[in-house]
Amino acid sequence: MDFQYIKVDPQAKKNIALIRLNRPKELNALNLQLMGEIRDALHTLDEDDRVRVIVIAGNERAFAAGADIKEMAGKDAIDMLKADQFSTWDQIRKTRKPLIAAVSGFALGGGCELAMTCDMIVASETARFGQPEIKIGVMPGAGGTQRLARAVGKVRAMEMVLTGKFITAEEALQYGLINRIVPVELYLREALRLAAEIAEMAPLAAQLAKESIRAAFNTGLDEGLRFERKNFYLLFASKDQKEGMQAFVEKRKAQFRGE
Questions:
Q1: Number of domains composing the chain
Q2: What residues in the chain have per-residue pLDDT under 70?
């Protein structure tokens, strides 16, 4: 995969792919091309049977400091509508395999939204999260109000979005936005370690479990339970279910193949 604004290692570790944002001078600002490259890379990796978990990272200074404001500043409402930039975000959200964001430095605006689109977030102690769009006369548009409110609650989301304030990694952990905090020099290694732990599990079960957890935020309890049970029953058609249960009975480690 040949891209301009991201670097992709389809086998950063066994069964793990790594996507690194690569606009360092712009603090990995998310322009349309970069987002399209993320979308295309995720689609390819989602179809690659060797890949079980995907990690998205920036660099130590910034995961992504927001959308590329220069790209949007001169546009009007019709221009934005025709650009249909959020269809790219919708496709990213449909990635079936587990996604982990490895965040160091700034994760602001679109950067915060991209991290929240992932399923888990590992942050360095320097990470800063925020939705500062109000400071330039707009508001979050790629899920910032919706995912943030679900993650940290209404009153904290209101304060962050209406003031544009940043929160620290410690606050993000306290609020339930991220999974863990590690020293800067370990943030990517820890994200890959978590990915490796997940990659050892049954791939189909991981994908359907991810799908079921996400359904909890989009459905009522009764519908969510029906969705969960459907996926539970479906996994009994997989070879990995047979292998996993037989390995348990035989007191050995299961060898999952994603089948």
A1: 2
A2: none
